[in-house]
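Example for tutorial group B:
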């Protein structure tokens, strides 16, 4: 039996831009696999399936590290803001819905309107929390796949103060 094994990706492959940004980390990763620059060039020509596998493994390692450290996510659409705080035990959601059809929260004007009118009858709030499933990083990644972005949490913290 061959020494090759196939792994299923847990997350998704990093983009070309992300790989370029993490160039040095990828070189270090290959070194931990005892793969030199010359061997990597040879693999790209002769064993593209091994190259694909190494790219996937590295991508999953990077995602695992990022997801383990992420604390806040935001998903902002035209009339909704879903702000998440990711604690050790659960995901807390602060959901904001704007019922003014002329407002787009993704624009500077729309967000300025919201900051002036966040206490009006045109804005609804909902809070919720949910325990993680078996794999908390997979749960976090699912939110990112749905459009959430990693933030420092200023917006969540601002609302949390207002609500309490």
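The residue assignment follows.
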């Amino acid at each position: 039996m061959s020494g090759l094994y196939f792994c299923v990706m847990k997350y998704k492959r990093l983009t070309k831009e992300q790989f370029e940004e993490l160039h040095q980390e990828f070189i270090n990763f290959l070194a931990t696999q005892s793969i030199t620059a010359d061997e990597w060039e040879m693999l790209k020509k002769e064993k593209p399936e091994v190259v694909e596998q190494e790219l996937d493994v590295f991508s999953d390692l990077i995602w695992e590290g990022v997801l383990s450290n992420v604390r806040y996510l935001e998903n902002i659409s035209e009339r909704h803001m879903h702000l998440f705080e990711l604690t050790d035990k659960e995901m807390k959601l602060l959901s904001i819905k704007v019922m003014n059809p002329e407002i787009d929260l993704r624009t500077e004007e729309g967000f300025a309107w919201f900051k002036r009118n966040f206490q009006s009858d045109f804005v609804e709030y909902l809070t919720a929390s949910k325990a993680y499933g078996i794999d908390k990083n997979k749960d976090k990644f699912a939110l990112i796949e749905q459009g959430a972005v990693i933030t420092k949490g200023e917006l969540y913290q601002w609302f949390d103060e207002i609500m309490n």
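The longest helix spans residues 48-69. Compare this with the pattern of hydrophobic and polar residues in the output above.
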